[in-house]
Amino acid sequence: MDIRFNRYLFLAAFLLPQLKAITADARAPKHFAPPSQKMVALAEALHQIQGTFHVNFNYSSATIANKFVPAEKIPVKGGFTEDKLSALLQPLGLVAEKLDATDYAIKPAVTTQKQSYTFNVAASRASHVVKGVVTNDKEELLAGVAVTARPGGKTVLTNATGAFSIEVEGDDVVLVFSSAGYLTQELKAGNNATLNVQLQADIKNLDNVVVTALGIKRQEKALGYSIATIDGSKVNTVKEVNVVNALSGKVAGVDIRAVSSDPGSSVLITIRGSSSISSGSQPLFVVDGVPISSGNRTPATPVGQVTVDYGSPISDINPDDIASISVLKGASAAALYGSRAGNGVVLITTKSGSGKSKKGLNVQANFNAMYDKAWQFPEFQNEFGAGDVTSSTDPTNTLSTASWGPRLDQGTKYVQWNSPTDVNGNLVPTDWVSYPNRVKDFFETGSTYTTNVAVSGNNFRLSYTNLQNKGISPNTDLQRNTVNLAAGYELSPKIKVTTNVAYANNHSKNRPTFNRGSASYIIYTMPGNINPALLKNYWQKDKEGLAQFSQDQGSTDNPYFVAYELTNGYNRNRLTGNIQLNIDLLKNLSLMVRSGVDFYSETDESKRAFSAVQNPNGGYSIGSLFQMERNTDFLLTYKKNLKKDWSFFVSAGGNRMDANNNSQSQAAGTLVMPGVYNIANAAAGVVTNNSSRSTRRINSIYGMGELSYSNYAFLNLTARNDWSSTLPSNHNSYFYPSASLSFIVSDMLHLNSKTVSFAKVRMNWSKVGKDTDPYNLYNNFTFASPDWGSVKMATFSATLKNNNLKPEIATSYEAGTDLKFFNNRLGIEATYYSTSSRNQIVPIPTSMSSGYSTKIINTGEIRNSGWEIGVNGTPVTGAFTWNISANFTRNRNKVVSLSKDLSSYSMGSAEGVQYQIMEGTQMGDMYGNTWKTVPDGPHKGEELLDNTGHSQAATGLVKIGNYNPDFMAGFTNAFTYKQFSLNTLLDWRQGGQFFSYVFMNLLSDGRTVNTLYGRDAAHGGVSWNDNGVERNDGMIENGYISDGNGGYVKNTNVTDPESYYGDYYWKMHQRNTFSATYVKLREASLTYTFTKKQLSRLPFTNLSVALIGRNLFSYTAAGKGYDPETAMTIKSGSIVPGTASWSLPYTRSYGVKLSVNF
């Protein structure tokens, strides 16, 4: 039996390969050739060319499968030329796209139409039926292909056997064949009765080329790490002033938060969670290969207590000039950028010339108009006006800033803020009425007009953009002018030079402010009996320039006075650019040399008029900032094809980075003459001078290599060594490597499944170093200002520096898969990552007996791990198409360790809330006050009030929440029907918490509808006697009080509403902490694109018009008017999330966009 079995096994082993060959031959298309002509598989021909001329071809197995060429046509003699390659590929309907000096992508020609015709013997007729079968390049039958007749728009779908039948009118009808994952083909129906069509796979979906570190273009399938690429057109679907905001909801693993709803506000972007205790988590931004500054700006010397938002310098980049944005999320992806890339990298590639040998110029113009409307305010109460109720002797006190006064709109009169005086100087009562729209009417309709004109040719592109913005807060604005030039010139067939230069000017006479003292704060806290329209003339009569007319003389500024007389302007000029030289030294050896610069200068100016609450005698400050970073780098690349199926390339290079910063400022808190704003007008002895200067240099060498097998297995290695000037000589050199693997399983297993179109697995490991800021090694003196008479003063830093610092080290692991199904109609990408950041450079508290308050040490480890999932699909094709994509992010953060001498570490505070970390906790934990509870007995855990029945705070701080989300998700839909397209983006953030100082203030002072309960009998108030005065606004706080004998009894003490709400909310941070969950319709656009026939009599080659909107819908779990997205504060240039403090209200934006080509 064993012998028989072995015999059958031998037979099967012999016959199966033969059977496979026979069936493969049966499926192969028939290429007829003369008997004397030897045919060679295209794959073998390409391999011969690679080995002979040291070039490299990138292609999918499906593209070249079952294709043969005559052996005598293979250009292995007489030298390699692109013309010979084209002659070889053209008969097969293929083209070669040149990627660089030695790399080519083999893909189907867009105009290639493999078809067969069976002519109808009958004469042409007005109406006839066309039948046929649609296959792919593997000659597989395609179901669900849309066949659309044009004109007319009649559409049918191919059945399960790929067959279709459609009735057409006339001989001039064009049939359009379209299916996801394939190139669309257009064929003239003519008088044909049968029309068989073969669709070519869309090479863009199979062998996508992406921009990676150092600006190197790579096949996406060869990468062993996750990279997200956003096309420039998707960045501009609904235009944003700050391009970073355009990424919100579109990229898995990326958390974007704006400080306010103002279009030019600062933005915090975090990739895969917060990883640094003290140095921030902003990624590195690189534009056309050159790193640029992206830090958020605060004024050099603020005047008053408001915070000014001057926006992020990254917003200088014009969205109209962007070709693509690539987000390098993992350390492996960003390792070649060195120590500054520890938080990830955002690569921005700007547009260049067309690259086509087209005569003449292409002119493109875009006009965009957006209007911003404030909405979703807190629900302010309009039933009770200004006043206090704590005093039983004068319960009305209607000049108070709180809103506990008498009931409004009852036909009564009271003395109030604008009461006239009688002949005796006494205030005269006036009508006590409400102004329900007082907050909404203060904010104006904002507008942003953007005009862009670009001229491009074969090797250049020049664009100009003008932006004019008017904010929703009165007298706030932003103007921007940008010029961008991209050009290239081929000095010889082996030498090419390219350059990119961008200039941007941003200026504003007044930027929005927030925190206490801002216009938002004043208008939000204004009692309901005040009419803001009466405040527009903000000077007192006969005291213009000297005394403001305020609704609360002496303690609160007039909101219009703040808007027009307490201004914060700035002017910023920025120049970025690079010049790059590419040289093909040998057939397989190339050199890239590049030098780039990022320079900007900025002037900030704050003016404070006389009678300002914070500056009664005026104030003025001016500051300037100069920053320049220069990067010079080179990269030498060698590529080689080895034996059959093997190829590799290696690159080695270096970089030198020099950064210089210089800032100066002068401030005067008192002026001599009103309305004269310069330092010479400062009062004697009040001027403070500040200046700072820093330099920094990093020298680097690096290398990378790739080994590939059969174009489906890839091993990539990188290594970099930095020498940083900010670290001590014994630790300033640090080395970090990375390794990644990528397997195209579908090619490796030769999958020809109709279900699985593409399958890839990838994994990587990396280690990245990170240095510190300048001047953290040795203590130094700082000159103090103002001087002590004629004596110059200097101070010694309270922080003990450390000349033995080591670089921070981040170690990252990542694994993932990319899958495509049903001829690429469904795609799934999943990634798991884990990153550990140790040796954190942190200033920690130290004993005051040392003479210092803090010292800098290496300590602590932060770990981030999580999942990123992306899904894209095309559920519907045809005349009506529907494309959908979704992304999901779940990150978990943990403080693995701190210093052995440090049980907790404070990362700052905002409005009384502390941000602290401890071992085992998470970054983003917030700590604040909570209420006392009954410690034991049957009422344990219930709130413990004081003996008068009022809330009391527990000893110490407790965790009240964490500002990081449980997960984030984004959903994009694109619908197209004929010339119409509808695009929507839904942005969902689930979980996390934020503290609302706004909510706490509004409720403790009786400003919202939440505080109506208990105001009088009609609102549930109880009757009580207040020192002999009968009142009906009594309230009893829920809780327990001590019975004096060690036990606890239910509280029955009655108190007034002002005391009740003040105690209940003002003292307790935890009661003012809410869920940060929100869902927003981030983008919506409806576009109509004119056909060429419609434009035939116009001088346009393309024309489209769109209705656009942003944030048209919003759901927030915290309730109407409390937006967790802008729960941010700015301190010392750093954005601190988690606390909402008098930012601008949420806005809804809508507008129109016009695009035209000449």
From TrEMBL:
<dbReference type="GO" id="GO:0015344">
    <property type="term" value="F:siderophore uptake transmembrane transporter activity"/>
</dbReference>
<dbReference type="InterPro" id="IPR008969">
    <property type="entry name" value="CarboxyPept-like_regulatory"/>
</dbReference>
<keyword id="KW-0732">Signal</keyword>
<dbReference type="Pfam" id="PF13715">
    <property type="entry name" value="CarbopepD_reg_2"/>
</dbReference>
<keyword id="KW-0675">Receptor</keyword>
<dbReference type="GO" id="GO:0009279">
    <property type="term" value="C:cell outer membrane"/>
</dbReference>
<dbReference type="InterPro" id="IPR039426">
    <property type="entry name" value="TonB-dep_rcpt-like"/>
</dbReference>
<dbReference type="InterPro" id="IPR036942">
    <property type="entry name" value="Beta-barrel_TonB_sf"/>
</dbReference>
<dbReference type="InterPro" id="IPR037066">
    <property type="entry name" value="Plug_dom_sf"/>
</dbReference>
<keyword id="KW-1134">Transmembrane beta strand</keyword>
<dbReference type="InterPro" id="IPR023996">
    <property type="entry name" value="TonB-dep_OMP_SusC/RagA"/>
</dbReference>
<keyword id="KW-0798">TonB box</keyword>
<feature type="domain" description="TonB-dependent receptor-like beta-barrel">
    <location>
        <begin position="513"/>
        <end position="931"/>
    </location>
</feature>
<dbReference type="GO" id="GO:0044718">
    <property type="term" value="P:siderophore transmembrane transport"/>
</dbReference>
<keyword id="KW-0998">Cell outer membrane</keyword>
<dbReference type="InterPro" id="IPR012910">
    <property type="entry name" value="Plug_dom"/>
</dbReference>
<dbReference type="Pfam" id="PF07715">
    <property type="entry name" value="Plug"/>
</dbReference>
<dbReference type="Pfam" id="PF00593">
    <property type="entry name" value="TonB_dep_Rec_b-barrel"/>
</dbReference>
<keyword id="KW-0813">Transport</keyword>
<keyword id="KW-0812">Transmembrane</keyword>
<comment type="similarity">
    <text>Belongs to the TonB-dependent receptor family.</text>
</comment>
<protein>
    <submittedName>
        <fullName>TonB-linked outer membrane protein, SusC/RagA family</fullName>
    </submittedName>
</protein>
<keyword id="KW-0472">Membrane</keyword>
<feature type="domain" description="TonB-dependent receptor plug">
    <location>
        <begin position="223"/>
        <end position="345"/>
    </location>
</feature>
<dbReference type="InterPro" id="IPR023997">
    <property type="entry name" value="TonB-dep_OMP_SusC/RagA_CS"/>
</dbReference>
<dbReference type="InterPro" id="IPR000531">
    <property type="entry name" value="Beta-barrel_TonB"/>
</dbReference>
